[in-house]
Amino acid sequence: FRATLAKTQSCRLYLVMLTSLFLSARAIPSLITNSSLNPSDASKSPQFDQFRENPGLSDAAIKVPTAPWMKGPLLLRPDEILDTSHHHEKRIKGKNDEEKTFKALNRRESGVRGMKAMKKIVRKVEKLDENSDSEETQMDDGEFKSFGRIAEKAESEKRFGGKMPWEREEERFILRRTKKERVPTTADLILDEALLIRLRREASKMRKWLNVRKAGVTETVVNDIRSIWKSNELAMVRFDVPLCRNMERAQEIIEMKTGGLVVLSKKEFLVVYRGPPSNSSEKTNSEISSSLYEREADRLLNGLGPRYMDWWMRRPFPVDADLLPEVVPGYRTPSRRCPPNTRANLSDQELTYLRNLAQALPFHFVLGRNHGLQGLASAIVKLWEKCVIAKIAIKWGALNTNNEAMADELKHLTGGVLILRNRYLVILYRGKDFLSDEVADLVEDRERLLRRYQHFEETKRESDIEILEVVTNGKPTVETSKTGTLLEFQELQRKFGEMEMGNLETEAEKAKLEKELKSQEHKLSILRLKIDKSTMELFKLNSLWKPSERDDDIEILTNEERECLRRIGLKMNSSLVLGRRGVFAGVMEGLHQHWKHREVAKVITMQKIFSRVVYTAKALEAESNGVLISIEKLREGHAILIYRGKNYKRPSPKLMAQNLLTKRKALQRSVAMQRLGSLKFFAYQRERAIEDLKVRLVNLQDCF
Description:
Blueprint: H1 2-27, E1 31-33, H2 40-44, E2 62-64, E3 74-76, E4 81-83, H3 85-106, H4 115-131, H5 141-159, H6 186-190, H7 193-204, E5 210-212, H8 219-229, E6 234-239, H9 247-258, E7 261-266, E8 269-273, H10 292-301, E9 319-320, H11 348-359, E10 365-367, H12 374-384, E11 389-394, H13 403-414, E12 417-421, E13 425-429, H14 437-464, E14 467-472, E15 475-480, H15 486-543, H16 559-571, E16 576-578, H17 585-597, E17 600-605, H18 610-624, E18 627-633, E19 638-643, H19 663-703
Parallel strand pairs: 5-6, 9-10, 10-11, 16-17
Antiparallel strand pairs: 1-4, 2-3, 6-8, 7-8, 11-13, 12-13, 14-15, 17-19, 18-19
Helix pairs in contact: 15-19
């Protein structure tokens, strides 16, 4: 407090001194002591006569006023005193001009600089150009303009890099996206303008609507709309996916099914007007100008089946596969024959190309059921005669659809190649070996003709073969030679080929099993070599670890003491976590560090087998010479509570856990144990597989 008071008094004294100095400076503002300035003006000034000790002497010392804290007087010669009254005024005036200029250029003052000031300058220059008519103050127009341009260009290049500050940059050419022209709706063409404005005003105030789910505009939705029309001439409908993504198509569907007119469309909402009573029965058949793409797609789908009018995407409307028959009498899978020097399987590049090709194609069918797809398969085969890819969409809102079952049945019925399948679509490729009905008939006719020619050739050959007389046991026999004929080949094939046909599959299966058995035995031998190597590594690491034996002289604790220590240990927040390395030297150091501050240490282990937890607890008790209190099951693992003992003495760091592994060696031992366990597990699997293969070989040989 005294030190603070002393500081306060010293500050007050300093302020008093500064105040007196300021007042003395204001009393005589024109006196400045400077020996380097001009002394002649000071000697001539009459203001300093009153301060001279002897006015008659020009070189006598002058007494100058001093500050209050100066003890003695201040005497200066006349040449050391300068009268700066006039110079000071001039300097201050020039300084004020400079400050004004500086403020005008740097401060943010309205009307002095910036965009407004530059605009004023430009206006004044333009007025000068317009009003300057006198010949004395004007040069020739061409010379003045050329000189102005040259001067302006030089100045702009020098200061502003090629342009003046008020010059604007040239407007960039921006190609804006043209807005889509609004196509007049049916309501715009039919209803009066006043009525349409009134209906839209009422529709904008509506706050209740009818939801259209994924199934689309069903019969139930149509009935609900018509029931609303009985009490109100407008009905608001809100569309869910997928129709909300194409509101133009949604408007077409709802006008077609309800017979009303859409007067307002906003986001996923449509307001439908029931129409005037007199014109409710009339149907407007507006001609829709379709594109070439739509016309070609319609031509492709004509004759395949009824169209799906609730289609939520762009035209054309695909075929509704649910309306096709489930069973087609006499249907059979189309015949297939791959061209020569061609593989039926698709490569990765071909598959990618077909997927990219299918992306731009329209959907051909819409499907909502999983089974009974013979009618759809017949339509797909008919489509494949014109298009190599069949694209099938799965209906939104259909119950219990399974695209995998759909794709499997269609593959089985058509024999095509599945390109893509997901929850929204199935794409089938007809395959390289696909033959249409016409081509298959031509191939069959050609084969029939070839067999007829072969038969004709065989009969002609038999008629021209010589009859040989073969004498056997003195009796002549007549035989027709069949050497080199088709009949000989057929007989040989019938005699030997069909007899071995049954055993061919058995031999192939036997060879396959023997090859698999040899492969499994080779893999098992490699695993056994790895097991031997891992065993040697683990043996070397275990030889470095010499676990201590449990001391027989253990402190005896009563049940009350054990219970008390157990509760203390469970309430402890600090714990020692035991990882995959197990018990090593670092664990012992951490345990003794815990015992340095508390009597009980809590060790948490993540081992799941309780026998391993007990083994770890006994190892900790033996290595630390502590007392095991209990083993508790926790949510994160098991907690091992160890008491340090009543006669605990911390061992020296040099002698602490010298018989245990280091941190690095402990990790190597853990990895080696894990590797050995995995190798033994895989070896056991190989042995079981080998035994199964041997059993299958024995059974196959018995059948043979």
